[in-house]
Amino acid sequence: MARRKFVCGNWKMNMTIDEAKALVEGIKPKVAGLEADVAVAPPFTALHAVAEVLGGSSIRLAAQNCHFETKGAFTGEVAPTMLRDACCSLVILGHSERRTLFKETDETVGKKVGAALDAGLQPILCVGETLEERDGGQTLAVVSRQLKAGLAAAGADRALRMVIAYEPVWAIGTGRTATPEQAQEVHAHLRRDLEAMYGSAISDELRIQYGGSMKPSNAAELLAMPDIDGGLIGGASLKPDDFAAIVTAAAS
To answer: Which of 251, 212, 209, 249 is nearest to 234 (CA)?
Structure first.
């Protein structure tokens, strides 16, 4: 089936409030009317300001993380309900930087997915292998494990509210990119996992983004693969022209 492509910009720990507003002002006219779904994920501090700039636009607002509790003594954390309050409709969960730098486990990510769904947010669940795991031939086993743990709290009734993002850790911020064929192999494997878990009606519809150094120069080739349904964009999402070029590739 034809799945509508979805491109989300993950701004990571970049952009002051004024910079964030200027960035989204630059992106808005460049992606208006394109046949693809678009979202941006600013840092927490800029969410409210960016939401105001996005008013009336089709670009959706995402957060980069959340906690799995709704409130309480969790200094420095942000609850899913707070993200809804800040006009977010999406949240990125299990990003490789959260797993590697902040020691998030498969179990923690799964709890966050459940909490995000409970709050009415759409999770973008990230899975991906390190270079060591790829070289050891473990790629497919690793992404399957992360996928199943991440979706443990979703259940078939909520699976279609998910987005999956495959992001090979070795291709994030390194300039290295999985070849379209390497990426397609993993995306196809993930879709087979989803079919085994939920049946083909769900697996055929659920979108799987690619998130490893996608940029204007390689976007069209990656997005032409049958199981790559968009991109989770890091560095290129901080430049309006580059981000718009990727969305344009997705729309065509």
So the answer is: 212
Sequence-distant (≥ 6) Cβ neighbours of residue 39 within 8 angstroms? 6, 7, 8, 9, 59, 60, 61, 62, 89, 90
d(CA 166, CA 209): 6
What pTM value is reported for the model?
Answer: 0.97
pLDDT reported for residue 212: 86
Cα separation, 233 vs 7, whole angstroms: 7
Phi, psi of 7 (to 5 degrees): -120, 125
**Domains of the chain (ranges, CATH numbers):** 6-251 (3.20.20.70)
Q: How far apart are CA 249 and CA 247, in angstroms?
A: 5
Please tell me the distance from the alpha carbon of residue 181 to that of residue 251, in angstroms, as a whole number. Answer: 21
Beta strands in the chain (DSSP E): 6-10, 37-41, 60-63, 90-93, 122-127, 163-166, 207-210, 230-233
DSSP, res 173: S
Are the beta carbons of 81 and 70 closer than 8 angstroms?
A: yes
Q: Is the pLDDT of residue 53 over 70?
A: yes
d(CA 80, CA 67): 7
For 146, the 3-state DSSP assignment is helix
Residues with a catalytic annotation lie at 95, 167
Share above pLDDT 90 across residues of the chain, in percent, rounded to a whole number: 93
3-state secondary structure of 90: strand
